[in-house]
Design goal:
single chain; alpha/beta; seven-stranded mixed beta sheet
C-alpha cells in the first residue's frame, strides 16, 4: 500500500508567519495554484481512498486534487487536524517562544497521531492469502469432478471457494494508493513516529533536511506481514515538491505551527 501524505497549500497566514493551529484559514491564490500543480501531477494516480483534515486549507487542497478523481469520496477526520496551539493562534510567534499552557502538548499530539495512524492501518490489513496447498486441493477436486459425477451443490461450493481465492489474490496484487491531506506539524510528528517508533526504513533518495513545504508529498510504502502480524514500511519521499520546481523561490520553508513544548 502506498500512502501519499500531503501538506495543504499556502495560506495568507503562512505568508505572514502567523500561527494557525485550529484557526480555519482558506488557501490564498498561490496555495490554489500549488494545489492545482499537485493535482495535475497526481491526476493519473489510481487513488483508492482519500482523507483530509476538516480544516479549510487542507480540505480545499484535497478537493482540488480530487477534481481529477470524481469517483473518490473525501473522508474527513479530526485525528488529522493540525496541532491545537491555544492562545498562540492568530498571531506571530516570538523568537524562542514555546507552546502556551492551553495548547495541545507535543506528547498529546504524538498520542493523537499515533492513535489515528494505528486505527487507519488496522482498517487496511489485507486479506491473508490462501496457502498453496489450498490451490492444489482445488485443482485435485476439479480433476476428480471430471471423472466422477459429484453432487451439484458440492461442485458449486468448490467454484465459490476458488472465486474467493482469486478475489483475495487479486486484491493483494493490486497495490492500493491512498491520499491523506494534513498539516506541517502533524506530518513532522508522524515522520518522527514512523522512523523512531515503528522503525520504518528510509529510501536512499530521501533528504530529511528538506522542509515540509506547502503541497509537499511524504510518501510511505507499507506491507502487512501476516506471519508476524505487523506492518513493515519504508519512507519513499519527504518534502517532495517536484511539481513546484519553477516556483521554489516563492515557497515558504518554515512550518510556523511546528512549535516546541
Amino acid at each position: 500500500m502506498l500512502i501519499y501524505f500531503v501538506r495543504h497549500g499556502q495560506t495568507e497566514d503562512n505568508v505572514q508567519g502567523i500561527i494557525q493551529g485550529h484557526k480555519d484559514t482558506p488557501l490564498n491564490d498561490h496555495g490554489r495554484k500549488e494545489s492545482e500543480r499537485l493535482a495535475k501531477r497526481l491526476k493519473d494516480l489510481d487513488i483508492h481512498e482519500a482523507w483530509s483534515s476538516p480544516l479549510a486549507r487542507a480540505k480545499e487542497t484535497a478537493e482540488i486534487i480530487l477534481d481529477h478523481h470524481p469517483n473518490i469520496k473525501l473522508k474527513l477526520h479530526d485525528g488529522i487536524k493540525e496541532r491545537y496551539l491555544g492562545s498562540m493562534e492568530g498571531r506571530r510567534r516570538k523568537r524562542g517562544e514555546h507552546a502556551p499552557d492551553d495548547a495541545e502538548s507535543s506528547h498529546d499530539l504524538l498520542l493523537r497521531v499515533t492513535e489515528w495512524f494505528d486505527e487507519f492501518l488496522s482498517g487496511h490489513i489485507p486479506l491473508e492469502p490462501l496457502p498453496d496447498s489450498h490451490h492444489q486441493q482445488q485443482h485435485n477436486h476439479h480433476n476428480h469432478h471430471h471423472h466422477h459425477e459429484l453432487g451439484k451443490s458440492y461442485h458449486e461450493m468448490l467454484v465459490q471457494k476458488e472465486e474467493e481465492s482469486e478475489r483475495i489474490d487479486n486484491e493483494n496484487k493490486s497495490e492500493k494508493k491512498i491520499l491523506i491531506v494534513s498539516h506541517g506539524a502533524w506530518l513532522s510528528c508522524l515522520l518522527q513516529f514512523i522512523l523512531h517508533k515503528l522503525k520504518f526504513g528510509i529510501s536512499p533518495k530521501v533528504n530529511l533536511n528538506q522542509p515540509c513545504y506547502n503541497t509537499s508529498i511524504m510518501l510511505i510504502k507499507v506491507e502487512f506481514n501476516h506471519s508476524k502480524q505487523i506492518w513493515n514500511g519504508k519512507l519513499e519521499s519527504w518534502g517532495d515538491i517536484k511539481h513546484l520546481d519553477d516556483m521554489r523561490d516563492q515557497e515558504i520553508k518554515e512550518v510556523t505551527d511546528d512549535v516546541k513544548g
